[in-house]
């Protein structure tokens, strides 16, 4: 498929949006036959400079002008210019041809008559990139341009074009296009392309493109590709790597309300959309700062700024982000995990068929949930637990949980003893593969081995268990 912004390149002055003064200027000049020999188009990227230069070239050579100034876009000349094949429209990009040779070549050829048309048009893009020597050579040409030659120089950085060049050209300023105008233009394009789009999405795209039409259309296309032609505000934000405010609000409120379930759901969707956790944390911090002085939210602010420090040095950023967020939510309330842990522990023990074990592990978990350290509780509850009599095996899926528990092995062993009067050794292990996803026949031997060595092991099929 043709790139959208090329497909919608203005083909006549009337197609240009916003640059009314430019349209008027060329309309009058062409109608009166008073076209200058050198123009300097200045203005931000993607605002219509190259498009206008080509329209001008077409108008000057069109054999069938519409209303006396617009190109017909149908005659041979118009078509050959549109397809970039015309011998009489020479486009040069000064960003890649900075040197004097190219300009000299132009100077040497400038005296020849156009081959197929009335005018020969030289379009030099990014003219501020020319070297000093090239500028001087260009200047000579601009001083005495032949009648049949028109120069259109274009630049996004007017201040870098030497005054001597500027003074020999008629300067035409292209302006940033206001976002409402861009939005309306995008709406038109969506309509013609049969794309559904949310008005807010287009608004956001328009605002993001800071007045450049090409950037806006390019962004629209990227988002449409990402979302199968349905352009929503959410998709727009995700493509831009921005986090929707509602998502941040939900994150903060899930933490403040200790709602781990909704928090986990939300974090999952953040992960699915490929949002960088660091970026997410930073946006959250900004959001929280804007909500001060709410005391509960301020506490989240403290947490998020610690989190940002922590994430800087982490490889597995997402795990850390997830686990620490859950801990934080648990500090605010603990009405979620107990149910989940009961379920988890009883499942494990059903398969084990040992009834008194369930009670011990469960009692310890319950104690942590009610009186103890919510973080320890969360880590244990999110891990797979096995009671082997003299040892308790704890397998975490996230390395951070594993590290966290390993550091607290002694504390947990003591608590276990105090609550159950049993002397156990806590063996914590980390498996990148969730234990449930290991073949059931393999599971027992994998776990036995882990409980004995607490070390590395490769189950059949290959993925490393650490
Ligand atoms: N004023 C405008 N009206 C309608 N479409 C525009 C306008 N300006 C830019 N566009 C869109 O952006 C695309 C690129 O525009 P163009 O090449 O004319 O920009 P430019 O000003 O030459 O940019 P650059 O400075 O990057 O060369 C066009 O194909 C068109 O889709
Ligand atoms: Mg251009
Ligand atoms: Zn024509």
Major pleated sheet: 5 strands, parallel
Strand portion, in percent? 5-15%
Provide the number of structural domains: 4
Structural class: alpha/beta
Low-pLDDT sequence parts = 334-357, 455-463
CATH topology tier name of the largest domain: Rossmann fold
Query: Treating each run of at least 4 consecutive H or I residues as one helix, how many helices?
Result: 22
The end-to-end span amounts to: 48 Å
Q: List ligands, each type once.
A: adenosine-5'-triphosphate, magnesium ion, zinc ion
Supply the CATH architecture of the largest domain. 3-Layer(aba) Sandwich
Helix content: 55-70%
What is the CATH first-level class name of the largest domain?
A: Alpha Beta
CATH superfamily (homologous) name of the largest domain: P-loop containing nucleotide triphosphate hydrolases
User: Rounded to an integer, what's the Rg over CA atoms?
Assistant: 34 Å
* Total DSSP E strands: 10
Mean pLDDT: 85
Biggest sheet, spatial arrangement of strands: 2-3-4-1-5
User: What coarse outline follows from CA principal-axis ratios?
Assistant: elongated
Q: Descriptors for this entry?
A:
alpha/beta; Rossmann fold; Helicase, Ruva Protein, domain 3; three-stranded mixed sheet; 22 helices; elongated; binds magnesium ion; binds zinc ion
Give a short synopsis of this structure.
With 466 residues, the chain is an alpha/beta fold.
Characterize the structure shown.
This protein is of the alpha/beta class. The chain has four domains: 4-173, P-loop containing nucleotide triphosphate hydrolases (Rossmann fold, 3-Layer(aba) Sandwich); 179-239, Helicase, Ruva Protein, domain 3; 245-332; 345-453, GMP Synthetase, Chain A, domain 3 (2-Layer Sandwich). Helix content is 55%, strand content 10%. The protein is built from 22 helices and ten strands. The chain has helices spanning 4-7, 20-32, 49-61, 76-82, 100-109, 132-143, 163-166, 179-193, 199-208, 213-226, 233-239, 245-256, 260-272, 277-291, 295-312, 317-332, 337-352, 355-370, 374-381, 399-407, 409-420, 440-453, and strands spanning 38-42, 89-93, 120-125, 149-155, 170-173, 196-197, 230-231, 384-387, 391-396, 425-430. The strands form three sheets. It has a five-stranded parallel beta sheet with strand order 2-3-4-1-5, with helices on one face. A hairpin with a 3-residue loop joins strand 8 and strand 9. The longest helix has 18 residues, at 295-312. Residues 334-357 and 455-463 have low confidence and may be disordered. Bound molecules: adenosine-5'-triphosphate, magnesium ion and zinc ion (ZN). Magnesium ion binds at residues 49-50, 125, 154.
């Amino acid at each position: 498929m043709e790139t959208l912004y090329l497909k919608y390149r203005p083909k006549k002055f009337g197609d240009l949006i916003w640059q009314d003064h430019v349209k008027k200027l060329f309309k009058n000049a062409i109608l009166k036959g008073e076209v200058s020999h050198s123009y300097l188009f200045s203005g931000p990227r993607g605002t219509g400079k190259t498009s206008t230069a080509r329209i001008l070239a077409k108008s000057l050579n069109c054999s069938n002008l519409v209303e006396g100034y617009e190109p017909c876009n149908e005659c041979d000349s118009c078509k050959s210019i549109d397809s970039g094949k015309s011998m009489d429209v020479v486009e040069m990009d000064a960003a890649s041809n900075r040197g004097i040779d190219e300009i000299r070549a132009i100077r040497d050829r400038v005296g020849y008559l156009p081959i197929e048309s009335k005018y020969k048009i030289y379009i030099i893009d990014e003219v501020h990139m020319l070297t000093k020597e090239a500028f001087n050579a260009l200047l000579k040409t601009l001083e005495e341009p032949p009648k049949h030659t028109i120069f259109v120089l274009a630049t996004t950085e007017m201040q870098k074009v030497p005054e001597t060049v500027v003074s020999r050209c008629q300067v035409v300023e292209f302006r940033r296009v206001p976002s409402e105008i861009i939005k309306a233009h995008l709406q038109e394009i969506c309509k013609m392309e049969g794309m559904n789009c949310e008005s807010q999405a287009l608004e956001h795209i328009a605002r993001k493109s800071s007045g450049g039409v090409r950037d806006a259309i390019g962004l629209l296309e990227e988002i449409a590709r990402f979302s199968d032609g349905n352009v929503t505000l959410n998709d727009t934000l995700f493509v831009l790597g921005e986090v929707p405010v509602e998502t941040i609000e939900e994150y903060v409120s899930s933490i403040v309300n200790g709602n781990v379930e909704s928090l986990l759901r939300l974090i999952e969707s953040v992960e699915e959309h490929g949002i960088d956790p660091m970026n997410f944390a930073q946006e959250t911090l900004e959001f929280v700062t804007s909500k001060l002085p709410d005391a509960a939210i301020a506490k989240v602010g403290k947490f998020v700024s610690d989190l940002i420090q922590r994430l800087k040095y982490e490889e597995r950023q997402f795990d850390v982000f997830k686990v620490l967020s859950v801990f934080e939510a648990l500090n605010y309330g603990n009405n979620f995990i107990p149910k989940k842990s009961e379920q988890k522990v009883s499942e494990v023990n059903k398969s084990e068929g040992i009834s008194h074990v369930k009670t011990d592990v469960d009692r310890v978990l319950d104690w942590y949930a009610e009186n103890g350290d919510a973080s320890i509780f969360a880590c244990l509850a999110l891990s797979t637990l096995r009671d082997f009599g003299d040892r308790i095996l704890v397998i975490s899926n996230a390395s951070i949980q594993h590290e966290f528990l390993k550091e607290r092995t002694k504390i947990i062993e003591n608590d276990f003893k105090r609550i159950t009067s049993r002397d156990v050794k806590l063996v914590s292990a980390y498996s990148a593969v969730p234990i449930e996803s290991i073949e059931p026949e393999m599971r027992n031997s994998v776990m036995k081995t882990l409980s004995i060595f607490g070390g590395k092991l490769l189950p059949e099929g290959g993925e490393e268990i650490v």
